[in-house]
Amino acid sequence: MESAETSSNPQTEKLVLWAVFFLFCSVLAFTVSTYSEETERLEALGLSERQKNSQLTALERQREQTSRYIERMSRDPEFVQDQARERLGVAKEGEIVIRIEGGATAGAPMQVVASVPNPSAAAKNPPAKGAGAKDKAAPKAAR
């Protein structure tokens, strides 16, 4: 009976052990790098999701305000008149519109601009001297 021969060359054993050690280190390094990359990617996706959620919340709030505005426009004729006067500068016939410009800022001088909605009254009351081009673009009369 012959005995099993252990290792005939100790250098071969060392070489095999070093090869296994380097293989283990390579797999470990690959795993760690992949983990860190995926962690960074996951954080970026989380940030993107939070931004999208905040945008969604803002859009839902805007949609809600718009729907309330539309509902009020459809059921409240006084609101429609107020909006036409305020945004479009529309006036009823025979009504004089007085616009105050620069009133929103504190300490700024206010300039009062009066306009007459019908052209015959405008011919009788010409604008004051020194009125700029901005003042000539007074609100239009309702038809």
Q: How does this structure look, described?
A:
- This protein has 143 residues and is mainly alpha-helical.
- The protein has two domains: 11-75; 91-136, no CATH class.
- The protein has helices at residues 10-75, 77-88, 119-124, 133-136; strands at 97-101, 111-115.
- Strands 1-2 form a two-stranded antiparallel ribbon.
- It starts with 9 loop residues before the first helix and ends in a 7-residue tail after the last helix.
Which key features would you list for this structure?
143 residues; mainly alpha; 4 helices; 2 strands
List the helices and strands and how they pair.
Layout: H1 10-75, H2 77-88, E1 97-101, E2 111-115, H3 119-124, H4 133-136
Brief digest:
This protein is mainly alpha-helical. It has helices at 10-75, 77-88, 119-124, 133-136; strands spanning 97-101, 111-115. The chain has a two-stranded antiparallel ribbon with strand order 1-2.
The structural domain count equals 2
How many beta-strand segments?
A: 2
Major sheet size, sense and barrel closure? 2 strands, antiparallel
Low-confidence runs (pLDDT<50, min 5 residues)? 129-139
Counting DSSP H or I runs of 4 or more residues, the number of helices is: 4
| Radius of gyration over C-alpha positions, nearest whole angstrom | 40 Å
Classify the secondary structure makeup into a structural class.
mainly alpha
Helix percentage:
55-70%
Question: What order do the SSEs take from the amino end to the carboxyl end, as H and E?
Answer: HHEEHH
Give the strand order of the largest sheet, numbering strands 1, 2, ... along the chain: 1-2
Give the end-to-end Cα distance, rounded to a whole number of Å: 122 Å
Overall shape: it is: rod-shaped
Percent range for β-strand residues: 5-15%
Give the mean pLDDT: 77
